[in-house]
Amino acid sequence: MAEPSAPRGSLLVAGTTSDAGKSVLTAGICRWLARQGVSVAPFKSQNMSNNSAVCVNPATGDGAEIGRAQAMQAAAAGITPDPRMNPVLLKPGSDRSSQVVLLGRPYANADALSYQDLKRELREHVLDAYDSLRAEYDVVICEGAGSPTEINLRENDLANLGLARSRNLATVVVGDIDRGGVFAAFHGTVALLEPEDQALISAFIVNRFRGDAALLDPALKMIHKFSGRPTLGVLPYLRDLWIDAEDSLTLEAAGPIAAKPAPAGVAPLTVTVVHLPRVSNFTDVDALRLEPGVEVSFTTSPRGIAEADLVLIPGTKATVSDLDWMRSRGIADAILARHAKGGAILGVCGGYQMLGHTIEDEVESRVGRVEGLGLLPVRTAFAESKTLARPTGHALGAPITTAYEIHHGVVEVFGGDPLMTAAADPASNALDGCASGRVLGTLWHGALESDAFRAALLEWVAGPRPRSGAEFAAARVAQYDRLADAVEEHLDTDALLRLIALGPTPSLALLPPGSARRSAW
Questions:
Q1: Each residue's pLDDT tens digit in the chain (521 positions)?
Q2: What does the record give as the active site (predicted)?
Q3: Domain limits for position 209
């Protein structure tokens, strides 16, 4: 079989389960190709996540909302994210309903059953978005959603084999061996599919293996014998990997994130983040992990509220419901007690709105007026239209160039001090946020990724401290390179390139393990 001189084509990365590693593998492949000069874009037909990002729609110039994982993958590929990379985004507001975002803008609200009917009209938009990217880039690496073997949802599938069959995409299935049962999951994934879908499953990839990969050789040969499909490689467990995640599965343990030791003579600083049931954009706190001596933990109880140096209430897709949850768990009372003792509190977006006096919501919860925690002199009224923006400005005397806004809530400030100037000029009268004593609130996500502002916030919390010099942007790029290095070192990249260029060819799917030549194309 002739080697492609340069890759042009596409590939679907599916997974045995959610959180099997689809997002990171897609990012790693995108980064690996981009480092070799290949024009590559990520694509995910349908995403369900409250962790989103704001980009610009190139067709209209308006702000657009996509899954944060796809924005991360675009950054790994070295390109600007746009809504075609995630044409359908579902943002759960409860266990039964979600807001449907189409090409970056709110489109409808749907429950699980009505969404199955809605898929029929979304399908054309999904395929148009994919075709547009495929015409613009040499390679499009698609990420599936959940498992491709959701047999109850296969008829109207948009994100997995429905897409793969409509565009004849070779599909690789990644499984997380750290959770166990990966080979049964590989075999079951193929066995439960109808023959036309089985023909698209071309290879497996084992993810998150700890130890000597040679120990897996007998299993890799057996799964090849049973399924007729090779395993393209075994990716190691990459410790301390942090990239923008798609959902909050990684937060479920609500334990502390490993912190770098504090410099000599500098006291450690603790940050407790309230893990709301419908938390959104929890990646706001990722940048704090870079700071030596800063330990971040998540809580679903009053534990840690009083003792922390800073308590952070993050964004949420269900502001009123999550405020009720905080009250039912005793967290709200713990925050009020903390405030009475002068403890530092920061609210971001929905968390900011909760800290205010009142919330008028006829959009998300439709319950009308509710009382907030009353710690900031602000009132919030929810609007039907969603604000999507990429502001820049200053806060606490430091520049902010990394912020973005995603919210229905319109906040009116009637007291306190302004927190952020929403312009490059610190004297601007266009303001966001509010400061009152030891309580800060802002609608701006992503502000902590601006290194100077993050340092200023820590000084506001704990007093003067040496600047660490941590650079968030450089650290993030280093994570992308770790993924690309793992792809290059541990996967059969020649076989991967054939799948991208040639599609799900039976002769490739039946190659014995290790027979594909590893060489530069």
A1: 444 456 899 999 999 999 999 999 999 999 999 999 999 999 999 999 888 999 999 888 899 999 999 999 999 999 999 999 999 999 988 777 889 999 999 999 888 778 888 988 999 999 999 999 999 999 999 999 999 998 888 988 999 999 999 999 999 999 999 999 999 999 999 999 999 999 999 999 999 999 888 999 999 999 999 999 999 999 999 988 877 766 544 544 334 444 577 777 778 899 999 999 999 888 899 999 889 999 999 999 999 999 999 999 999 999 999 999 999 999 999 999 999 999 999 999 999 999 999 999 998 888 999 999 999 999 999 999 999 999 999 999 999 999 999 999 999 998 877 676 555 444 443 458 999 999 999 999 999 999 999 999 999 999 988 888 889 999 999 999 999 999 999 999 999 999 999 999 654 444 444 433 332 22
A2: 349 (nucleophile), 445
A3: 9-242+478-509
Rounded CA separation 354/243 (Å): 28
- Model's pTM, two decimal places? 0.88
Which contacts of 53-59 are long-range, i.e. CB under 8 A and separated by 24 or more positions? Answer: 53/81, 53/244, 53/404, 54/388, 54/389, 54/390, 54/404, 54/405, 54/406, 55/80, 55/81, 55/82, 55/83, 55/104, 56/80, 56/82, 56/390, 57/82, 57/83, 57/103, 57/104, 58/82
415 within domain boundaries: yes
Q: From residue 20, how far is each of 174, 177, 201, 317, 394 by CA, in Å?
A: 6, 9, 16, 25, 39
DSSP state of 36: T
Cβ atoms of 172 and 11 within 8 Å: the answer is: yes
Catalytic residues, by residue number, are 349, 445
Distance CA 101, CA 47 (A): 10
Domain identity same for 491 and 364: no
Q: Using alpha carbons, select from 195, 197, 206 the residue that is nearest to residue 171.
A: 197
**Inter-CA distances, 104 with 57, 107, 243, 387, Å:** 8, 9, 22, 11
Do residues 448 and 482 both lie within one domain?
no
- My answer on whether 490 and 387 are in the same domain is no
Number of Cβ within a 10 Å radius of residue 89: 29
Cα–Cα distance measured from residue 75 to residue 402, given in angstroms and rounded to the nearest whole number = 14
Instruction: List CB contacts of 174: < 8 A, sequence separation 6 or more.
Output: 13, 14, 15, 16, 20, 21, 22, 25, 204, 205, 206, 207
User: Considering only CA atoms, which of 260, 12, 320 is closest in space to residue 157?
Assistant: 12
When divided into structural domains, the chain yields a total of 2
Burial class (CB in 10 A: 0-12, 13-18, 19+), 518: exposed
DSSP H or E segment with residue 100: strand 97-102
264 DSSP 8-state letter: T
Helix then strand then coil, % of the chain, to nearest 5: 35, 30, 40
Q: Are 201 and 174 in contact (CB under 8 A)?
A: no
Residues 496 and 361 grouped into a single domain? no
Residue 254 exposed, middle or buried by CB count within 10 Å (0-12, 13-18, 19+): middle
